[in-house]
């Protein structure tokens, strides 16, 4: 019995010593983000209550350096290396005020809730930032901001935390930036409104043009069907067949 207790105690001490203080590459730290190995870019995917304490970028960087033990990446971390993934600060002061220039604006801004989004509904929004070829950040008419992942299509990765930039990824991202940045578009929702990362899932319309389909038709994306959002699946498959036959973009 004494020998058993000794072994059990040893195991407890061993696991206590080897438990890491930060997640392995690709997992989220205590702020809800992590570094990309390739270039030490920090992605804040799921902001926790700790991350939401930051009132500006400087405070967020300080929290990252405090809670993420990747000393190699935190050493040279700056604002250009932090991707907020749609997160906005509770107080959007990015730099300290100067005594000679008092501010007349409120010191804090509340995060605006998204409007009610129902199955098969449509909403007019403005694209305020392009994250990737198939992912954008939009602002609703009530000023609420959200990240949108386009349904049914997949462009090569350019900002994935654990993958290098894929072939034709930059071309797809640049194409979407050219077509959608600062444009007013219509989001059409299907059956599933959000994905597991909290991003909105939608079809993007520029007038009568279904942009998801355009990405496939021009060879910037391949079809990626995920149930239950399959409303335009047949159109996307036909567009991919046409792009393959014409050897466009990905199919060159």
Overall number of strands: 11
Number of helices: 6
Helix and strand succession?
Answer: HEEHHEEEEEHEEEHEH
Major sheet attributes? 5 strands, mixed, barrel
Backbone shape: globular
The low-confidence parts are 11-25, 92-100
Average of pLDDT: 83
Radius of gyration: 22 Å
Helix percentage range = 25-40%
Strand content: 15-25%
**Strand neighbour order, sheet with most strands:** 4-5-6-9-8
Straight-line distance between termini: 70 Å
Structural class: alpha+beta
Task: Summarize the model shown.
The protein is of the alpha+beta class. It is built from six helices and eleven strands.
For this entry, give a set of tags.
three-stranded mixed sheet, 6 helices, 26% helix, 11 strands, globular, 252 residues, five-stranded mixed barrel, alpha+beta
Describe the structure.
The chain is of the alpha+beta class and 252 residues long. It has 6 helices and 11 strands. A hairpin with a 4-residue loop joins strand 5 (135-140) and strand 6 (145-150). Helix 5 (211-217) runs parallel beside helix 6 (233-246). The chain is globular, with a radius of gyration of 22 Å. It starts with a helix and ends in a 6-residue tail after the last helix. The model is unreliable at 11-25 and 92-100 (pLDDT under 50).
């Amino acid at each position: 019995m004494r020998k058993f207790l000794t072994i059990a105690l040893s195991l407890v001490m061993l696991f206590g010593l080897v438990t890491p203080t930060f997640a392995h590459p690709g997992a989220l730290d205590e702020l809800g983000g992590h570094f990309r190995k390739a270039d030490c870019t920090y992605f804040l995917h799921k902001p926790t209550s700790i991350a939401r304490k930051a009132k500006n970028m400087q405070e967020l960087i300080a929290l990252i350096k405090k809670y993420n033990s990747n000393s190699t990446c935190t050493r040279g971390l700056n604002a250009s290396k932090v991707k907020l993934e749609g997160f906005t600060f509770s107080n959007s002061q990015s730099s300290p005020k100067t005594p000679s220039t008092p501010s007349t604006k409120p010191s804090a801004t509340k995060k605006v809730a998204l409007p009610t989004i129902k199955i098969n509904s449509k909403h007019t929004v403005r694209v305020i930032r392009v994250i990737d070829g198939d992912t954008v950040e939009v602002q609703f008419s009530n000023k609420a901001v959200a990240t949108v992942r386009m349904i049914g299509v997949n462009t090569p990765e350019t900002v994935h935390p654990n993958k290098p930039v894929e072939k034709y990824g930059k071309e797809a991202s640049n194409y979407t930036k050219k077509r959608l940045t600062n444009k007013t578009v219509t989001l059409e929702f299907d059956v599933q409104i959000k994905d597991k990362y909290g991003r909105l899932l939608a079809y993007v319309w520029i007038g009568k043009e279904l942009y998801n389909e355009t990405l496939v038709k021009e060879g910037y994306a391949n079809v990626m069907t995920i149930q239950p959002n399959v409303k335009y699946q047949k159109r996307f498959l036909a567009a991919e067949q046409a792009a393959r036959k014409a050897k466009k973009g990905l199919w060159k």
